[in-house]
Every structure is written in structure tokens, then in C-alpha cells.
Amino acid sequence: MTREFSRSLRISQEIHKEITIILQKKINDPRLKMMITISGVEVSRDLSYAKIFVTFLNEKRNLDTIHDELRILKKYSGYIRFLLGKNLKLRITPLLDFFYDSSLKKGEYICSLIKKINTVVYENKVI
Q1: 3-state class (DSSP) for residue 84
Q2: pTM above the 0.90 mark?
Q3: DSSP for 37-63?
Q4: In whole numbers, what is the pLDDT of the chain averaged over residues?
Q5: What fold does the segment set 7-101 form as a domain?
Q6: Of all helices (H) and strands (E), which one includes residue 96?
């Protein structure tokens, strides 16, 4: 009988869930002004590293604030790793590295282009 999910995928899902809870309940830094959501987690094959992809809701489209928020999250990565190690029963708690996921921004941009195309098509009555 084959497994449907690999061990690293299951662990990345658990890390995703636990870090979401940690960010909501344990990190209360006033410098983190935007709401942080975890969009994905990638774990290395040996489970020693994890890439955490985050998006910021209510972002002001300013790259400086995004970089500031990422810098703050990277400073908290040791504390988040400590809490993660207490909640997950793993032999090795992976080192965490946070990255900005711009797919939400790109999706909004593509939607705006499609809306512009639709308005031009309907104005010229070409269907």
C-alpha cells in the first residue's frame, strides 16, 4: 500500500498550522502592523530547514514596509522555532526562514487586466 502524502508534506502542513497559531496568539509586537497570513511552507528533505511564505493583508503596497515586516519576522524566527519545537514532537525542529509571497499581488494585477479587457470588448461590442 503506497502513501498518498510524503512525510515532508505532512510535516510542512503541521508547521503551517502551528506557525499560524503562534503568529495569531503569541506574537504581539506593535511593529507588526499588517495582518500576516502564511501562504505556504516548504520543508527540506532532511527536515532541517523550512521556508515560510507569508503575505500581508491590508498592505499599503509599499516595499519598505514589507521588508520591515519580514525583518521583524526573521528576528522572531528563533522564538517561533522554540515554540514550534514545544508543539511538534520532532527530532529536529527546522530552521525557519521567512519569504514574501507576491502571488496575491500578481493575481490582483491579472484580475485588473482582465477587467480592462472585458470593458474594452463590451464597449466595442465584439463578443
Answers
A1: helix
A2: no
A3: EEEEEEE-TTSSEEEEEEEEET--S-H
A4: 85
A5: GMP Synthetase; Chain A, domain 3 (3.30.300)
A6: strand 95-100
